[in-house]
Design goal:
- By secondary structure, the chain is α+β, with helices and mostly antiparallel strands.
- The protein is built from 2 helices and 4 strands; from the N terminus they run αββαββ.
- The chain has one domain.
- Strands 3-1-2-4 form a 4-stranded antiparallel β-sheet.
C-alpha cells in the first residue's frame, strides 16, 4: 500500500507499519510501499516504536513522506592495556 493511501485511511494518527519496499539516497531511506499492522494511540506510540523489530516502524500520518535517517553502526573497539 502506498503511504498516501495510508494517510487517507488513518488521518492525523500514528500507525505501526512494515516497510515493504524502499530505496536509499544520501544517507536517507525513502519508504515506498508499506503494510499497515495497526493504528497506534498517541499515548503509547513511543512504547510501540521501542517494541518494533526489523523493518517495522511507527510513523505519524501528518508526514507527507516516510524518510528515515540512516546511521552507520558504531562498533566498539577493545584495547588491551599493558
Amino acid at each position: 500500500m502506498k503511504w498516501s493511501e495510508v494517510r487517507r485511511l488513518y488521518p492525523n494518527q500514528f500507525v505501526k507499519l512494515k516497510a515493504l519496499t524502499s530505496h536509499l539516497a544520501n544517507d536517507q531511506e525513502f519508504i515506498e510501499d508499506v503494510a499497515v499492522i495497526k493504528p497506534v494511540a498517541d499515548e503509547i506510540a513511543t512504547k510501540e516504536l521501542l517494541r518494533s523489530k526489523g523493518d517495522e516502524l511507527v510513523y505519524h500520518t501528518v508526514n507527507e513522506n516516510i524518510v528515515l535517517e540512516v546511521r552507520q553502526d558504531v562498533g566498539l573497539r577493545r584495547f588491551d592495556l599493558p
